[in-house]
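Many introductory courses stop at the sequence. We go one step further.
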Amino acid sequence: MTRIEQLRLEDVEASVALHLDHLRLGLFPRLGQRFMRFYHETFIHSPHGVALVAREGGEVIGVLFGTASNAAHYRWVVRNRSWKLGATGLAALLSRPMLALKFMTTRGPRYARAIMRRLSPASKSRGGSGAPLPVLSHVVTAPDVRQRGVGRKLVKAFAQQVRRDGAQAALLVTEEDGLGTPFFERIGARLAAKRIGQDGVPVREYRLTLGDASRYENTEPDRTGRPVFGPNHARIGPPEHLSARAGHSPG
């Protein structure tokens, strides 16, 4: 029987293994296992993070990471974990010169500006207005349990949790023509924007109204045997393009 629970610190080794083995899109997986451990832990420790695990017989078979309030979560990360993540990420970049060059020319200046905004005294008051914006950041399941609805159960639990925090809609992001597109549309998500993502590939942003979470139970599973969701839009510091719908400047 599959159980959906809160991810614990002792689960992080398994969650990182799933992420690195089966969802290597975006920058963060390329920064290595140590960085990914710290990154996953931010979702556990943050009061605004959502970290869920699917278990069968004590084994981790799927994980989901998201935020109940995206702006509040990344303010918390910048204020409480930015030095740890930054130092680990910098060490990884120094051992990967080509990746470091790409980071400095595409993401570095944006991250620096975003971190300064999050650290400014005014950022707290700006982030406190309006309804929170949840973001589903990453979800992945083990290959041998796909097509069994594990991913849908994780999404249902995510929707129920962020609704309790007062959210009315969630942001979902996927590659253009990726596997997430038909899934998102089947569960009633509406296309909000198309743009070029941080890694230079076209992506779609979907907005999902958080109504009755039971609708996710009737979604047809993906038939390809690959993860339904992606890419993960991982970044060092707050992901500004995900915060754009919450009233922050897009990246």
